[in-house]
């Protein structure tokens, strides 16, 4: 064999050794990447919800909603009981260019006081 042939064999062996070395490095990199991925994707075990706690929370929400609805109904009854002057409703609606329902509601909220209702609508 000539010197050139021997150099090719040595170069090929070196390349093979480097390839084996790269394979070992690649294998280590893959293992590290795999471990890192496992850490990212580890899932905490799902907790079982206590059904009694869920039922208590749902009951609290329902009672809160019902209490709000009851308070709203009571407020609407109070507002409906307020006596207002229909002329005031017309004047406020025309002057402020608003609808009659808004004018009436504002008058009721201010106990029929037209001046206070107008001030409220202007602010």
Characterise the protein shown here.
Helix content is 80%, strand content 0%. The protein is mostly helical and 123 residues long. The protein has 2 domains: 1-42; 69-123. The radius of gyration is 41 Å and the shape is elongated.
Tell me briefly what this model is.
This protein has 123 residues and is mainly α.
Kindly, what is the distance between the CA atoms of the first and last residues, rounded to a whole number of angstroms?
104 Å
Principal-axes geometry comes out as elongated
Counting helices, strands and paired strands, the structural category is: mainly alpha
- Averaging pLDDT over every residue, what do you get? 79
Radius of gyration: 41 Å
Instruction: Report on the biggest sheet.
Output: none
User: In percent, how helical is the residue content?
Assistant: over 70%
How many DSSP H or I helices? 5
Helix and strand topology:
Elements: H1 3-41, H2 51-81, H3 86-95, H4 100-109, H5 114-122
Question: Any key phrases for this structure?
Answer:
123 residues, mainly alpha, 2 domains, 5 helices, 80% helix, 0% strand
